[in-house]
Amino acid sequence: MMPTRKNYNQNWLPSIFNDFFDNDWMVKANSTAPAINVIESEKEYKVELAAPGMTKDDFHVQLADDNTLTISMEKKNENKEENDKKYLRREFSYSKFEQSMIIPDDVEKEKINAAVNDGVLTIDLPKKTNEEKVQARKVIEVK
Question: Do the domain assignments include residue 72?
Fold first, then answer.
C-alpha cells in the first residue's frame, strides 16, 4: 500500500483568518433564547430568566388583560475602535428576545414585581390568599 500524500494548501494564512472571523459561530451564539426557570411555592410563582450582560433598561415586562405575561429584551451594541488602529472586522451586535406565557388565575396581579440582579431577571408573581380567592368569586343571582 502506498502512503497517501496530503495536499497542503500553500495559502494557509487566509484560511486561518477566514476560520477565525467566520460568521457561523456568531449566528449560533445569538440565535439561542435565554434560559427560563418557573418555580412554584406555597405563596408565589417565580420566573427567572438568565440574560448575562443585560440591565434593567434592556427589559420590558407587560401583563395583558387576558393574563398573558410578556417578557421582552432588546440590546444594541456597537464596539468602537480607535481611529489610529486598523481593524479587520467591526462588530455591530443586536439581540432581541420575546417570550409570552399565560399566568394562573390565582396570581395577585397588582403585586407582581420584577428585578434584574447579576444578569438574571426575576419576576415575582404572588399568589392570592384563600380569603382573596373567596372575595374574587362572583355570585350570580338566579331570578
Answer: yes
All three cell numbers of 45? 410563582
Find the domain containing 120 and state its range: 35-80+88-136
Amino acid type, 40: E
For 83-88, the CB contacts below 8 A with 24+ separation are 88/17, 88/21
Could you list the pLDDT tens digit for every one of the 143 residues in the chain? 444 444 444 444 444 444 444 444 333 344 467 889 999 999 999 999 998 888 899 999 999 999 999 999 988 766 565 666 766 776 666 778 899 999 988 899 999 999 999 889 999 999 988 777 777 677 778 98
Per the structure, the count of domains in the chain is 1
What CATH number does residue 96 fall under? 2.60.40.790
